[in-house]
Amino acid sequence: MNIFAEVHLTDSKLTQLNSFLEERKESFSKIFVLLDDNVFDYCWQSLVTSCPLLQNVELLQIDAGEEHKTLDLAQQLWLTLTERGADRNSLLINLGGGVITDLGGFVAATFKRGMPFINIPSTLLGMVDAALGGKTGVDLEGLKNQVGVFAKPEAIFLVPHFLDTLPETELLSGFAECVKHALIDDLPLWEKIKNEEELTVELAKKYLWEFTLVKKRIVEIDPTEKLERKKLNYGHTFGHALETHLLNSGNKVTHGACIVFGMLTENYLAFKSDLMLEADFKMLEEKLLKWFPNLPTYNKEVMPAVIDLMKHDKKNFKNQIRFSLITEAGNSVVNKVVEPALFEEAMEYYLKIRK
Ligand SMILES: NC(=O)c1ccc[n+]([C@@H]2O[C@H](COP(=O)([O-])OP(=O)(O)OC[C@H]3O[C@@H](n4cnc5c(N)ncnc54)[C@H](O)[C@@H]3O)[C@@H](O)[C@H]2O)c1
Ligand SMILES: [Zn+2]
Questions:
Q1: Confidence class of residue 318 from pLDDT cuts 50, 70 and 90?
Q2: Separation between Cα atoms, residue 292 and residue 289, nearest integer Å
Q3: CB of 285 shorter than 6 A to ligand 1
Q4: Sign of the C-alpha dihedral, residues 320, 326, 332, 333?
Q5: Rounded to an integer, what distance in angstroms lies between the CA atom of residue 108 and that of residue 127?
Q6: Helix boundaries (H) for the chain
Q7: Residue 144 vs residue 48, higher pLDDT
Q8: Residue 170 vs residues 108, 122, 175, 200, 246: alpha-carbon distances, Å
Q9: How many angstroms separate the CA atoms of 229 and 147, rounded?
Q10: How many of the other CB atoms lie within 10 Å of CB of 45?
Q11: Cβ contacts of 52 within 8 Å, gap of 6 or more
Q12: What Å distances lie between residue 195 and 183, 190, 210, CA to CA?
């Protein structure tokens, strides 16, 4: 199955989205829009103004935040859809960041065994990563994305001006995935961004399509993550473990900030395992620390608990932790097993270099 839906980079009048709705409107019995309260405040009005066909749709508005990406909320949404007369020919529009597209994609894919949905990501992270590639799901008892399905949206529409209202921390969270994309598979793109002093919204818009194409290329080769797609998990073994630990202990932290922590610690593993040259290791450390201030921190005592969480990583095989690493900018290796003694060392090293 080709899981990669068509992605459209929209113009300022959202012509591509309007054409889609115009062409398909008779085939949908009803249209629902899932969004969170921030997206309602910042994006909804401008979307309706450009797409009058959305004026009379049914809104499903939820509170913002990762803590709502749960089975409980999925159940509430299935019930609301039922009460409001949704059927298999209704369309669900997921308008929002990764929380909305993950949750909404899962709800749509499972409601009456599947109703059509489209994704309109409103965060940088959503545009270059979460809304693309067909992975949907919810967290379970604090374990990230523990339950979910692969599901293909009807289409994905990128609206660059939604980035204008994004808070700085959320912009940087998305940039973590952009930088990751360049590092794992796109040396020319890395060369274009590597000398930037700052990661700005203008820069995000300038290279939005190129950041997106990296994921598209990889997912088209390997939709269900047998091998090639594992590259995208660079930074995510350590990153997801720390994100899970911090969220479970009530800390607010972005996904991207944890992925930067993951790239720094996993580069340490690559360097200490002779997979990465010292010069590359140092150069990457310098760039990541310059671009991403205010990275997450932790007490040394929690390191074993964070490392323990890596045992739940979806890439593991026969109880062995498998890493997706880079050996240099633009070059990845997957399924790497490294000396477990390096795990705590990497986390201690990070605490020393973190500013
Ligand atoms: N499915 C995948 O392949 C995939 C890939 C990467 C990440 N993810 C998931 O994505 C989630 C993170 O996504 P995210 O960072 O977009 O989080 P998010 O959806 O929580 O959005 C971040 C914050 O920005 C706000 N927001 C959204 N759009 C805005 C706008 N235009 N202006 C102002 N504020 C806006 C949201 O309300 C929220 O408070 C995580 O759950 C992660 O696991 C999934
Ligand atoms: Zn990610």
A1: low
A2: 5
A3: no
A4: negative
A5: 19
A6: 15-24, 37-39, 45-50, 71-83, 98-110, 124-125, 168-185, 187-193, 201-221, 236-248, 255-272, 278-291, 303-309, 341-353
A7: 48
A8: 26, 11, 9, 12, 17
A9: 19
A10: 10
A11: none
A12: 14, 9, 17
* b/e sequence 188-222, b meaning 16+ C-beta within 10 Å: ebbeebeeeeebebebbeebbebbbbbbbebbeee
Give the model confidence (pLDDT) of 119-132 as tens digits. 999 999 999 999 99
What is the rounded average pLDDT for all residues in the chain?
Answer: 95
The b/e string for 262-288 (b: 16+ C-beta within 10 A; e otherwise) is bbbbbbbbbbbeebbeeebbeebbebb
Tokens 């994921």 locate to 215
Ligand 1 lined by 98 (C-beta under 6 Å): yes
Helix count and strand count (H, E) for the chain: 14, 10
In the reported structure, the alpha carbon of residue 265 is separated from the centroid of ligand 2 by a whole-number distance in angstroms of: 15
What's the number of CA atoms in the CB half-sphere (13 Å) around residue 283? 13
Distance, CA of 191 to CA of 209 (rounded, Å):
16
- For 332, how many CA atoms within 13 A lie in the half-sphere containing its CB? 24
Ligand 1 mutation target, pool 38, 66, 236, 258, most atoms within 8 A of CB: 38
b/e string for 49-66 if b means 16 or more Cβ within 10 A? ebbeebeebbebebebeb
User: Would the CB of 120 count as within 6 Å of ligand 1?
Assistant: no
Local structure of 196: helix, strand or coil = coil
Tokens (6 digits) for 250:
């009530």
Separation of alpha carbons 65 and 39, rounded Å: 11
Measure the CA–CA gap between 259 and 196, rounded to whole angstroms.
Answer: 20
Q: Do the beta carbons of residue 173 and residue 204 sit within 8 Å?
A: no
Residue 312 per-residue DSSP state: G
Residue to substitute in 255, 314, 315 for testing ligand 1 pocket (most ligand atoms within 8 angstroms of CB): 255
Q: Tokens in use for 170?
A: 């959320």
